[in-house]
Amino acid sequence: QAVKTVDVGTQVSGIIAKLYVDFNSTVKKGQLLATIDTVVLAASVRDAQANLDKAKAQYDQAVAVHQRNTQLYEKKFMNEVDFIASKTNVQSLLATWKSAVTNLERAKLNLNYAYIKAPISGTIINRVVEQGQTVAASLAAPTIFTIAEDLSSMRILTSVDESDIGQIKEGQKAKFTVQSFQSRTFEGEVIQIRLNPNIVSNVVNYTVV
């Protein structure tokens, strides 16, 4: 397997509107890979913007009213209870306005998440969706693509049993063959002996990279 692979998922749900890459495509970091339908997400942005405009207008009105009430209170034309209520209303509407700002930012982020981009440069080694398919991002982001960073640098995860693991050391040279190139011997190096064992048929095995 490739030394470094990255699963590319989506943080928003929707229909895959367009796929721009396929198996074995070479991609650059930041390249657009797929687009999720943006109709609902764009509507959410417009709705959040409208709520923000409404909250801002209500806050501005409350500030103007409170400024007038301050003058009345200083001249003893308003009692303290009504003045405190006026001040509290300003603070409450300020909080509503800030919340509306946050909701708009969140809606814009979700819209931006509809454009799925490559987090690293590499090669698409797996694609698990088709154009028109609906993806649902709930508790976990569903995987859409898997990108291998560098297919010229590979690693082998091999299982070594307890009777042989004592002979394995990091830095040792290793040789191996594969059936598709029977006349060629490949070389590598032991870079890691993982301490977490697997027990299969009462035999303790360790993963060696």
Rg: 30 Å
Q: What is the number of strand segments?
A: 13
Structural class by sheet pairing and helices: alpha+beta
- End-to-end gap: 11 Å
- Helix-strand pattern, N to C? EEEEHHEEEEEEEEE
What's the pLDDT, averaged over the residues?
94
Strand order of the largest sheet: 1-8-6-3
Q: What is the global morphology?
A: elongated
Share of residues in helices: 25-40%
Beta-strand content bin: 25-35%
* Biggest sheet statistics: 4 strands, antiparallel
| Unreliable runs | none
Tally of alpha and pi helices: 2
Would you kindly provide a written description of the structure presented here, covering whatever features stand out?
- This protein is of the alpha+beta class and 209 residues long.
- 33% of the residues lie in helices and 30% in strands.
- Helix 1 (39-74) runs antiparallel to helix 2.
- The mean pLDDT is 94.
Key descriptive features of the protein:
209 residues; alpha+beta; 4-stranded antiparallel β-sheet; elongated
Give a quick summary of the entry.
It contains two helices and 13 strands. It has 209 residues and is α+β, with helices and mostly antiparallel strands. Helix 1 packs antiparallel against helix 2 (80-113).
Blueprint of the fold:
Layout (H helix, E strand, L loop, with lengths): L4 E5 L4 E6 L6 E2 L4 E5 L2 H36 L5 H34 L1 E3 L4 E6 L6 E2 L7 E6 L9 E4 L11 E6 L2 E9 L8 E3 L2 E6 L1
Antiparallel strand pairs: 1-8, 2-4, 2-7, 3-6, 4-5, 6-8, 9-13, 10-11, 12-13
Helix pairs in contact: 1-2
